[in-house]
């Protein structure tokens, strides 16, 4: 019966109540009554004093105490505690006043230090978080405050842990919920953002114009190169065609001359040559008045036989001079046979 009454009394006394402090609000358990048998809930640590002096910390589960000598002095929760850090003002490095609030996550690691190291550990950690936040914000400009929120949070956690180790409390993380700036500063920031947007748009537009101009110029360049290459290929092909035509004409003329020389060397070749010259003379004479109104005629125009005889005489003279030139070249190419000169000593 005594155990049942003790358990009921314990359950009634550990009902959470709202504990209001100037810094924060949280739920805390009342101190249980001193009975012989106590049941400690999970994730709680009960600090027991014997005759006013620290005796031991009760573990979760069944525990037995001496009613008159032992007394439960503190009840510490080992769960992760979330504390809302109220809004506060801070001045940045560039003298801008900011209103910042945050959330603090901490846990009690050592119930003995949390009970005897500080009067109210959670209130102390909250005040430490506020002062640390103000000092860290004073090291940064307004622009860096918005860009480096994670580094700011980690610096605040590191500073809190350095001081809270003596209190048996471990700060797990700190998060900034909201940052409020003055209206005028907010308007200037909005104007700065708009100017930055316009600058980016202008830069992008200029880059697009530059790329378009480069592409157009590159296209004109390629077109001119291709056109010049086409003209070059056309001229080369035309020159090659003309060269081949000249070579073909020269070869044809050379063959014709060989055939003509062979024909003249045969019997009655002079008569055939005379006939050909006469035919060409008559043909040329018939075309004199077709190309121009002015015609120059020799005195003996009607003497065809005289013209043929004159042409054949020129041909005979050239034919006789050619063998003489060939004989002179042959004599010049032959080596001279001179007697060797003997020296005076040999004579």
Automatic annotation (TrEMBL):
InterPro entries reported in the protein's UniProt record: Band7/mec-2_domain, Band_7, Band_7/SPFH_dom_sf, STML2-like_C, Stomatin_HflK_fam
Keyword Hydrolase among UniProt keywords: no
Subcellular location: Mitochondrion inner membrane
Family matches, as SMART domains: PHB
Domain of life: Eukaryota
GO biological process: mitochondrion organization
Compositionally biased tracts (Basic and acidic residues): 323-334
Domain Band: 35-193
Keywords: Mitochondrion
The keyword Mitochondrion is annotated on this UniProt entry: yes
Chief location: mitochondrion
Functional description taken from the UniProt entry: Mitochondrial protein that probably regulates the biogenesis and the activity of mitochondria. Stimulates cardiolipin biosynthesis, binds cardiolipin-enriched membranes where it recruits and stabilizes some proteins including prohibitin and may therefore act in the organization of functional microdomains in mitochondrial membranes. Through regulation of the mitochondrial function may play a role into several biological processes including cell migration, cell proliferation, T-cell activation, calcium homeostasis and cellular response to stress.
Similarity annotation: Belongs to the band 7/mec-2 family.
PANTHER family referenced in this protein's UniProt entry, alphabetically: STOMATIN-LIKE PROTEIN 2, MITOCHONDRIAL
The protein's name in its UniProt record: Stomatin-like protein 2, mitochondrial
Species for this entry: Sander lucioperca (Pike-perch)
Gene designation per UniProt: LOC116044692
């Amino acid at each position: 019966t005594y155990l049942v009454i003790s358990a009921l009394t314990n359950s009634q006394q550990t009902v959470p109540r709202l504990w209001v402090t100037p810094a924060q609000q949280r739920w805390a358990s009342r101190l249980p009554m001193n009975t012989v048998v106590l049941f400690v809930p999970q994730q709680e640590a009960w600090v027991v004093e014997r005759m006013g002096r620290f005796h031991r910390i009760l573990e979760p589960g069944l525990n037995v105490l001496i009613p008159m000598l032992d007394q439960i002095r503190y009840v510490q929760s080992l769960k992760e505690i979330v504390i809302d850090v109220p809004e506060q003002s801070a001045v940045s490095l560039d003298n801008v006043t900011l209103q910042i609030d945050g959330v603090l996550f901490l846990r009690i690691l050592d119930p003995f230090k949390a009970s005897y190291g500080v009067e109210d550990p959670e209130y102390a950690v909250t005040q430490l978080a506020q002062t640390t936040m103000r000092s860290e914000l004073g090291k940064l400009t307004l622009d860096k405050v918005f860009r480096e929120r994670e580094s700011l949070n980690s610096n605040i956690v590191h500073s809190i842990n350095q001081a809270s180790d003596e209190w048996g409390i471990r700060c797990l993380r700190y998060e900034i919920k909201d940052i409020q700036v003055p209206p005028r500063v907010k308007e200037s920031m909005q104007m700065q953002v708009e100017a930055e947007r316009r600058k980016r748009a202008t830069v992008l537009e200029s880059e697009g114009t530059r790329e378009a101009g480069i592409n157009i110029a590159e296209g004109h360049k390629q077109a001119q190169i291709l056109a010049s290459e086409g003209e070059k290929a056309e001229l080369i092909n035309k020159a090659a065609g003309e060269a081949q035509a000249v070579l073909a004409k020269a070869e044809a003329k050379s063959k014709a001359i060989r055939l003509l020389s062979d024909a003249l060397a045969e019997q009655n070749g002079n008569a055939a040559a005379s006939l050909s010259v006469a035919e060409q003379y008559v043909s040329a004479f018939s075309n004199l008045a077709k190309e121009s109104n002015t015609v120059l005629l020799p005195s003996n125009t009607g003497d065809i036989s005289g013209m043929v005889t004159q042409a054949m005489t020129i041909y005979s003279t050239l034919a006789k001079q050619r063998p003489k030139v060939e004989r002179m070249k042959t004599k010049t190419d032959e080596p001279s046979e001179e007697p060797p000169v003997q020296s005076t000593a040999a004579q």
